[in-house]
């Protein structure tokens, strides 16, 4: 075999893929230290770690791609991923074909780009060049805070300033990271709770179902916003940070809807013949649930989750607007609009105070809503081949 | 020749608890299924055919509840009562010793997995060890044949697979079976399974099985889908196969092919088949014995030929007469199927029966052997027996 002659050809595609994966891990590590390495408390070694991480990451990804092309079993890989690639191309075509999906995808990727590039777009430093204590707390010069009237957009403050001379541009950019963080944490927790409880309730039925569903009824009986506010206030008295309290509050209000949705789907799927057929071939309950019921019940929930991503951020903004979400000066869109409160009644005289954060929230929600529709077109087999 | 009984159903009572009341779906039925025979279970819709077949797998779902009786299986390890064993034991019997073919082939296949995946699932449940052994012997060959990188990969996979056989719950395995690249050794087993699956599909005369394994259920025609469902049921060469109206949703030509296939497979594999249907023509064509059910009772059990020549129970006679024939007036059984919430007392057929006697509404007739191998539950024959014994 001529495999032995070529020095680079000894690695299989699995090893090459492994190299790429490790490279990506390094690159992500670099980004995280980029954001959080700006905390001065972490010490002087952070820049060196950063340099090491990005060099190692890029080098590994490059080497992985190089090895992949020369792997002796590259043909196997190519053949193996052919169907996946075909479906992926079909998905891309589907997205390109519908202007609304395309807009949703580009809006969300625009916000992802803003989040990743936040440290470049709005460097977290004081005007004197010192790093900020916490990049999410918008810097304002203590000596100038008494200047209460908002300043219109200028070269120094591209979106102008709001109450307390808060830099709106900085707040909007770093607010994007906060929006993604909030949305991801809430959606993942709500999905996990909803899927686990909904599956158990729907599959086993009987007493378990009754207990779980009555519990969701109890939570659904309260108006969501009021319940969240009560929880935040209760947790704030126990010295929770307001952001953690807000996230927990939104999760508490959000999970019953998902549980009900999953349960309904499970009830539909579990009467299907293939579930019975699988039982007749000796599958255990857990296996039937995970392999047969869940994959057939999950799509509506994924679509609802992507539609909800925007609403959750909107809900958090409402909380902040009421003064219960993020603390003042925190880079959160709702908080910025809260700061604009006194100026809204002046009409358009101080338009920048509420227009800019408002545009960010609106576009973010719109993007996720359109993406949710795109997900439905892609994931739902009824729409996919239409 | 007296054949050994494979499954013995004894005095099976089954109720459904609905809002309208208690539906007495099975009223103490008894049935023997002999080793290697095809027995047809016929009856009208709602007479308890499907429930009987599901009870054989202990798969009756709520609101149904088995009130009493035994379903004994003569397995390799001796007699077991399926209704009273541990869940883990039951899971081993289902699919391996008793398996089931469903009525709607498309509905019995999960739309999100390919045909190959679904058949493989049954393989993994019951024949994992054989598959791993086959993969190991293949890997041993590969280690000898190859060099360099491929050989080292083969060696590593070989070691891992040996460990799976020895100690499947070791920490190293649990770790590496979850990680994307390290779990490559599992693909070896997958490849063996795929080959076995293709073989199985070929046995069922599916054209171009290599292509069909990668197809999704919606890409198959009805007949093909039914063959795949049969393949799933046959994965472990079960000793007992329950076919719940497997050809009802197919058109006549495909139905004939499937019937021939089932007969042929029975001869090849030697399994017993319980064939549930309401089509007497299919029974005449396929089965060796036949059991007739009416409103939760078994009213007649006989060999196929004697049954069609001389049905004994009035219901069976009426049933055979009501098969539509060209040029003849259509005959139907008077009255309607009784509600099983408040079934007729005594013999459940008495209010529709032409020969009903005075005792019929009072006493439930037992299933007696009126002629050799021909059982019937009707007072006409119990009386005759009593008369005979009085005479002698």
Summed up:
The complex is a heterodimer of chains A (386) and B (392). Chain A is 72% helix and 1% strand.
DSSP strand count of chain B: 12
Within CATH, the superfamily of the largest domain in chain A carries the name MetI-like
The largest pleated sheet of chain B is described as: 8 strands, mixed
Please tell me the overall pLDDT of chain A. 83
Alpha-carbon distance between the two ends of chain A? 49 Å
Model regions low in confidence, pLDDT < 50 over at least 5 residues of chain A = 1-9
Number of strands of chain A: 2
Description:
- The complex is a heterodimer of chains A (386) and B (392).
- By secondary structure, chain A is mainly alpha-helical.
- Chain A has 2 domains: 2-80; 166-384, MetI-like fold, CATH 1.10.3720.10.
- Chain A has 17 helices and 2 strands.
- Chain A has helices at 13-36, 46-70, 74-80, 82-97, 99-116, 118-121, 168-204, 206-221, 224-237, 242-270, 273-280, 285-297, 299-321, 333-339, 341-344, 352-379, 381-384; strands at 161-162, 166-167.
- Chain A has a two-stranded antiparallel sheet with strand order 1-2.
- The two termini of chain A are 49 Å apart.
- The model of chain A is unreliable at 1-9 (pLDDT under 50).
- Chain B has 392 residues and is of the alpha/beta class.
- In chain B, the strands form 2 sheets. An 8-stranded mixed β-sheet of chain B has the order 6-7-8-3-9-10-12-11, with helices on both faces. Chain B has a 4-stranded antiparallel β-sheet with strand order 2-1-4-5, covered by helices on one side.
- Chain B starts with a strand and ends with a helix.
- The chains are: A mainly alpha (386), B alpha/beta (392).
- The A-B interface holds A 1, 3-4, 10-12, 14-15, 17-18, 21, 72-73, 83, 205-206, 272-274, 276-284, 291-292, 295-296, 381 and B 57, 59, 62, 91-96, 99-100, 102-104, 107-112, 121-122, 125-126, 147-150, 153, 180-181, 184, 214, 229, 232-233, 235.
